[in-house]
Design brief:
This protein is mainly α. The chain contains 6 helices and no strands. α1 runs antiparallel to α2, α1 (24-46) crosses α3 (74-92) and α3 (74-92) runs antiparallel to α4 (95-118). The protein starts with 23 loop residues before the first helix and ends with a helix.
Length: 182
């Protein structure tokens, strides 16, 4: 690209995408993380682990969310979560699935960011908090949607399940965070 002065040649930084301020690598990594989260979410839907208690899942896609939070930052984590929720909801779910997932993800990411900033908890502690608050976000939507506050009693069961699932996902994410270079 030439400037107004014919003797001065300006070269555009080809590593930056035009107008976004993000590198091509960052954009590509975000896309890969969205795809990976969608694959894990889909694989999890094939294995019914919550058969005894409805609504309980391990939350494999949250593995990607936690790794992204530690390795890519908040902005990319939000983009990855939104991308996964919207694309998975459109492809494999419905509008209510999207609403429940968005509420859970919003509350979960908010709490994980706050807990991570305290530097008191490891990625496992952050994951446990995220899992419990993800369930709380979904219960709040259920209470509003169904206009039934009694659903809050189910939160105890979901908190226990969230703590267990959050522990598993937190341990796995800790291993990945320590061993991945991005």
């Amino acid at each position: 690209m030439k400037s107004d002065n014919p003797k001065i040649i300006t070269i555009k930084d080809s590593n930056r995408s035009e107008g976004s301020g993000r590198t091509n690598k960052e954009i590509a990594l975000t896309g890969v993380f969205i795809a990976l989260a969608m694959i894990l979410s889909y694989l999890e839907s094939l294995v019914p682990i919550g058969f005894a208690v409805p609504g309980i899942k391990l939350g494999l896609a949250n593995l990607v969310t936690i790794v992204a939070l530690y390795k890519l930052g908040l902005k990319d984590t939000i983009i990855i979560s939104l991308g996964r929720i919207l694309l998975s909801g459109i492809l494999f779910g419905n509008m209510m699935v999207i609403i429940y997932s968005l509420a859970g993800a919003f509350l979960s990411i908010l709490v994980m960011v706050l807990v991570k900033k305290t530097k008191v908890f490891s990625s496992t502690g952050v994951s446990i908090c995220g899992a419990i608050f993800h369930n709380l976000g979904q219960i709040i939507v259920a209470v509003i949607t169904l206009e039934n506050g009694n659903i809050m009693y189910y939160m105890l069961v979901l908190a226990i399940a969230g703590a267990v699932a959050g522990t598993v996902i937190g341990i796995l994410s800790g291993i990945i965070i320590r061993n991945i270079r991005i």
